[in-house]
Amino acid sequence: MGFEKRILCIGAGYVGGPTMAMIAHKCPQYRVTVVDIDHERIARWNSDDLPIFEPGLDEVVKAARGRNLFFSTEIEREIEASEIIFVSVNTPTKAFGAGAGMAADLQYWDRTARQIREHARSHKIIVEKSTLPVKTAQAMERILTAEDNGVGFDVLSNPEFLAEGTAIKDLEDPDRVLIGSRQTPEGLKARDTLVEIYANWVPRERIICSNIWSSELSKLVANAFLAQRISSINSISALCEKADADVQEVARAVGMDSRVGDRFLNASVGFGGSCFKKDILNLVYICRHYDLNEVADYWEGVIRINDFQKERFILNMLDVMFNTLAQKRICLLGFAFKADTGDTRESPAIFVAKRLVEERATVVITDPKALDNAREDLKELGGEISFVEDPYQACAGSCAIAVMTEWGIYRGLDFERIYRSMSKPAFVFDGRNILDHEGLFQIGFNVFPIGKPGRTHF
Ligand code: NAD
Ligand code: UGA
User: Fold this and answer.
1) 111 lines ligand 1 (CB under 6 A)
2) Within this chain, do residues 139 and 273 fall inside the same structural domain, yes or no?
3) The model's pTM
4) Does residue 431 fall inside a structural domain?
5) 226 CA → ligand 2 middle, Å
6) CATH number, domain with residue 263
7) Counting ligands in written order, which one lies closest to the CA of residue 36?
8) What confidence category does residue 438 fall into, taking pLDDT thresholds of 50, 70 and 90?
9) Ligand 2 site: residues with CB under 6 angstroms?
10) Are strands 124-128 and 153-157 parallel, antiparallel or unpaired?
11) Residues with catalytic function
């Protein structure tokens, strides 16, 4: 069968895999290939054991794989054969040299641009899917055209707004798709080609277009605004605990104002995930680059509050458990950075586990999907850490339970049974405010939610 277009995505991660699977699923007329340098990852995309857990992903991949969706490591051949190339390689925070700890590390991005230039034999539309500093498209254009091989390139920005755990739903029914382009006739033509791809399933009014720099910047700003809401409510959670207020009641009252809105106001042990911190640091770095230090300080505050919230959680545990955690068995319920994903990147549970080990506690970790990643994250740590699949076994013999991830299954646990199996006095620290705090207190637990005064039996 002849395909209408050949689309390539470089980078088969949390974004590249699901995004391209959705395009292939919705558009059988296109041939979609996803490539990666990581052979093991590609082998898993071609197997029944996909490299990432995401509700609904298996079905979407299985429907299209082998028909018009392909996973491959033959990057050079696929570059040559494709008309449209999405780039969704990782852009972590730079860990070395100038801008270390703040700027985006663009080495994977730069390498990909050079590889495209080397192997392109015909016109290509390059789509920035990764989250990038503003003006990256210009750098990309300069690399692509640094050697005149007679091939034309148009660079577009098309940031991805999916959240892990709801990626398939977000891709199928996005709030918006954003496409930034140069405002030249060639740029606008390339933009229209990408609009046509999304228009196969996204209503036209939700496909919005802008200039390329606005598009790049909008992605960083969208994540900064989302994280800012969490830090705002988390800062108030600290005050609620002192002032006998209940942060969920405050969030409800504030969020019912339609100008504020009620989403993303769940106080927690802190936000995690691979992007919020990295993207805000990147925004801060760009602001400092332009000498906008007040603006940089403002956004840096979002991260400072998040660090404060995680540290506060540990100090509270220490305080109420009689100022020592040494030799005490403490069970972390959940390790993923949020529910419905196995991803643990920047999970607050990593911080909490490390701090507990510093306090010489005996840490037990349970999670339905993230235990492999948890083992990897904590492998360099000494101290006593164990990984247990069954939550009842994990809790047995513990002095305290700390909820790290809002997995639905934790709400339905038999806490009377758990209480009986624990060492007394038994504590619950609910870092996600998902449990029935009154019910737990009645069972006999000493209960410490986020943003509500704790209750003890002593
Ligand atoms: P990831 O680390 O899961 O995947 C990136 C992939 O790129 C890896 O598999 C890596 O092997 C591959 N890669 C790196 N260099 C390569 C090269 N030269 N050639 C081929 N493959 C190469 O990262 P991710 O979570 O998918 O994020 C990718 C980008 O998307 C980042 O910029 C991120 O900020 C952004 N983003 C992520 C999310 C998310 O939910 N994870 C959401 C929106 C945007
Ligand atoms: C986030 C954004 O929501 C996506 O739009 C964006 O595309 C993505 O980052 C990205 O660029 O990578 P994600 O990190 O997958 O998505 O998940 P979120 O649902 O945003 O949660 C992030 C963290 O905030 C989690 O640790 C979550 O538990 C926490 N959170 C979220 C709260 O503590 N309270 C809330 O009210 C909401």
Assistant:
1) yes
2) no
3) 0.96
4) yes
5) 7
6) 3.40.50.720
7) 1
8) very high
9) 131, 160-164, 223, 226, 230, 264-266, 268, 271-273, 275-276, 337-338
10) parallel
11) 275
